[in-house]
């Protein structure tokens, strides 16, 4: 085996940025040090135990400074306590007037995920838990109900027992406070049918289904407004009184809807919390995670009576020097594990003396420890290559550590593009069809992308009425005319008619001179009223219907994810905290959004020739080449085998010979250099050639 210094030369920096977000989307989370934030973890575990006993809903504010690890901590809670509760991650809401629909959508989206080690989703486990509790309580009809439960577990054909299932739930859970009991319990039963499971989930989360789908589920209408969404969430609460608690985690609140004065609309969230309390909803633990500074700036605008209903406050504090050392050791362990002999210190090439000098108070945020680790590891790695004296730490002296010297913008851009590829891949895996996203979220994502590419005078809510949040308008580049955009994917043709009617009124009122309808789905049969208005607007006029591709949505959703991270002060590139303006600059300079065909179709960005995945039977290796250069830039120095491993994990079609050829091309272009070209491949080292 190689010595530790030889391993360090070849390795990636183990402290490189690892973006945090929705804990159901993170496939690989950073290692957790159990001693960190043990007190708040114990407090939350105790609260879940109390709710399991008395079923009383509780709310808490989880607050801490930027870098204390709030988002990572919620993932840790889910990981450790998912056998004691069901966990829901609520993304920031873009429209306060649709907040109940937003919460319902993300509740069901989270419940369809399976906990680690479980074959069933949280949703199925939730229903099974309820049924098991009812079975124990039931005195009459017990054998019939046992047969239903067997059907639920897939042992019999239980379709004929649907009405009995509904009747027994009405009898045991009751109908008082249950919104639309027959339809709701019937859809829960449909979750047992593999042919109807997906459709039942879509109805539960509020998709505006077409008539045929509603008929299959035996329901009259979709959950298409705030009252219905609140009612269905209340139903979840009623059933949760017979199961384990549901934990609703609200995170990244810096990205929620804003009031006219620019402040966050926290009141909307606390209105929800008060409604839950006033309605005596059961079985919920509501966690509102927020930065301390954001809380201090915005909580004064929340009604005191609403604040009182979230009286439990749990701080995430700075961690101790010993905990920081353990955190650094957890990141360095995979590097140490490749070496022989193993380093004596678990944080080598760092040392405790440096930590004590940098953090004289012996406390700091996890982020500060990791930033220091990244910088010192990189310094040591450069020293190994340049054969100089051991590096002197750049952060010494009293007080909080100042940031390291600003990294070159070229390196920041390279790390951003690497992180974009990772996030884009996650978005692709999660969003397999456009309708998984709400129309109001799609238009919000589009607005953020338009802002990034400097489109002027963007105004939300072009059309009026129920579907206003599906629309926006902006100033056409280089002209005085306004362009309107309406995005609807609702398959329900009544909803489509209402949207078309609202579009027609906006055009008649001259609110825009050009209108684009974004819709990948169908527009109904010619005899339908919605289709007739559609043809009047979009046939032989200057208005257009664009069918957005799924790939375009992936670009918008990926950029949206970065915006959330930036607004929550969670995006670090090369150890530097990135602002929204810097993110927008990175997007423009990297030209990533120029690949979004929707922005091309809108005439905002120039049309590009699509790059075929294969040309004359050969793959297009340009993205691979860009990836190789970016990773070498971000690392400065690394091992060629490590580079090959990274490229293979990112691009499944790439072979070792392909990577070697691309490296040779980069060397010929004098962008990178093999330091020891005569060495065996497994020992070769490569570095980036910085421009002078």
Describe the structure.
With about 700 residues, the protein is of the alpha/beta class. It has 27 helices and 19 strands. The chain has a five-stranded parallel sheet. The protein has a five-stranded mixed sheet with strand order 8-9-10-11-12. Helix 7 packs across helix 8 (about 180-190). The model is unreliable at about 395-400 (pLDDT under 50). Keywords: ATP-binding, Nucleotide-binding.
Helix content: 40-55%
Mean pLDDT, nearest integer? 88
Major beta-sheet overview: 5 strands, parallel
The number of strands is 19
* Tally of contiguous helical segments: 27
| Proportion of beta-strand residues | 5-15%
Ends distance? 37 Å
Give the overall form: globular
Low-confidence stretches: 394-400
| Strand-pairing-aware structural class | alpha/beta
- Taking all Cα atoms into account, the compactness measure Rg is 28 Å
Q: Strand order of the main beta sheet, please?
A: 2-3-4-1-5
Organism: Brasilonema octagenarum UFV-OR1
InterPro entries: AAA_16 (IPR041664), P-loop_NTPase (IPR027417)
Domain Orc1-like AAA ATPase: 42-270
GO molecular function, one term: ATP binding
Provide the descriptors you would attach to this structure in a database record:
ATP-binding protein, five-stranded mixed sheet, AAA_16, five-stranded parallel sheet, ATP-binding, 19 strands, alpha/beta
Offer a concise description of the structure:
It comes from Brasilonema octagenarum UFV-OR1. The chain is of the alpha/beta class and 692 residues long.
């Amino acid at each position: 085996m190689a010595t530790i210094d030889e391993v360090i030369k070849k390795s990636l920096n183990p402290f490189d940025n690892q973006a945090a977000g929705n804990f159901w989307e993170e496939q690989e989370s950073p290692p957790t040090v159990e001693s960190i934030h043990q007190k708040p973890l114990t407090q939350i575990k105790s609260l879940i135990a109390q709710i399991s006993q008395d079923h009383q809903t509780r709310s808490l504010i989880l607050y801490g400074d930027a870098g204390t690890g709030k988002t990572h901590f919620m993932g840790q809670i889910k990981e450790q306590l998912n056998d004691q509760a069901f966990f829901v991650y609520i993304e920031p809401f873009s429209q306060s007037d649709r907040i109940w629909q937003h919460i319902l959508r993300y509740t069901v989206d989270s419940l369809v995920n399976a906990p680690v080690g479980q074959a069933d989703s949280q949703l199925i486990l939730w229903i099974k838990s309820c049924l098991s509790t009812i079975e124990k309580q039931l005195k009459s009809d017990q054998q019939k109900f046992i047969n239903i439960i067997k059907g639920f577990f897939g042992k019999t054909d239980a379709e004929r027992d649907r009405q009995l299932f509904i009747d027994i739930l009405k009898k045991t859970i009751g109908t008082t406070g249950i919104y639309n009991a027959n339809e709701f319990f019937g859809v829960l039963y449909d979750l047992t049918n593999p042919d109807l499971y997906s459709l039942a989930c879509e109805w539960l989360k509020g998709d505006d289904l077409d008539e045929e789908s509603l008929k299959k589920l035996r329901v009259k209408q979709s959950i298409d407004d705030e009252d219905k969404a609140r009612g269905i969430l209340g139903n979840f609460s009623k059933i949760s009184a017979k199961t384990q608690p549901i934990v609703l985690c609200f995170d990244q609140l810096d990205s929620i809807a804003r009031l006219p004065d620019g402040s966050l609309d926290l009141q909307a969230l606390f209105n929800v919390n008060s409604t839950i309390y006033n309605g005596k909803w059961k079985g919920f633990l509501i966690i509102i995670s927020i930065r301390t500074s954001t809380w201090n700036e915005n909580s004064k605008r929340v009604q005191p009576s609403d604040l009182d209903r979230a009286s439990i406050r749990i701080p995430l504090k700075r961690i101790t020097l010993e905990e920081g050392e353990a955190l650094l050791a957890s990141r360095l362990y995979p590097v140490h594990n490749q070496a022989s002999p193993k380093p004596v210190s678990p944080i080598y090439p760092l040392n405790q003396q440096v930590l004590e000098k940098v953090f004289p108070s012996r406390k700091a945020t996890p982020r500060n420890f990791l930033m220091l680790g990244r910088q010192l590891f990189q310094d040591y790695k450069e020293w190994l290559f340049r054969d100089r004296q051991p590096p002197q730490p750049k952060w010494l002296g009293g007080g909080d550590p100042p940031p390291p010297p600003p990294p070159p913008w070229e390196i920041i851009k390279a790390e951003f593009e690497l992180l974009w590829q990772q996030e884009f891949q996650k978005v692709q895996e999660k969003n397999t069809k456009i309708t998984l996203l709400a129309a109001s979220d799609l238009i919000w994502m589009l607005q953020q992308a338009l802002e990034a590419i400097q489109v002027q005078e963007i105004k939300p809510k072009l059309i009026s009425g129920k579907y206003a949040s599906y629309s926006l308008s902006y100033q056409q580049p280089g002209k005085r005319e306004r362009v309107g955009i309406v995005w609807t994917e609702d398959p329900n043709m009544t909803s489509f008619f209402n949207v078309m009617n609202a579009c027609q009124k906006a055009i008649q009122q001259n609110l825009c001179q050009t209108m684009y309808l974004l819709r990948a789905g169908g527009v109904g049969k010619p005899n339908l009223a919605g289709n007739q208005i559609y043809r009047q607007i979009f046939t032989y006029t200057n208005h257009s219907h664009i069918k957005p591709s799924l790939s375009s949505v992936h670009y918008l959703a990926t950029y949206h994810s970065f915006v959330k991270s930036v607004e929550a002060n969670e995006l670090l590139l090369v150890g530097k905290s990135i602002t929204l303006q810097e993110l927008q600059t990175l997007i423009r300079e990297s030209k990533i959004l120029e690949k979004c065909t929707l922005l091309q179709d809108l005439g905002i960005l120039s049309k590009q020739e699509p790059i075929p995945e294969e040309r004359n039977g050969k793959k297009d290796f340009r993205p691979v080449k860009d990836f190789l250069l970016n990773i070498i830039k971000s690392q400065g120095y690394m091992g060629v085998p490590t580079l090959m491993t990274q490229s293979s994990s990112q691009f499944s079609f790439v072979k070792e010979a392909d990577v070697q050829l691309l490296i040779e091309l980069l060397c010929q272009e004098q962008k990178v250099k093999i330091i020891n070209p005569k060495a065996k491949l497994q020992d070769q080292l490569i570095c980036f050639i910085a421009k002078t």
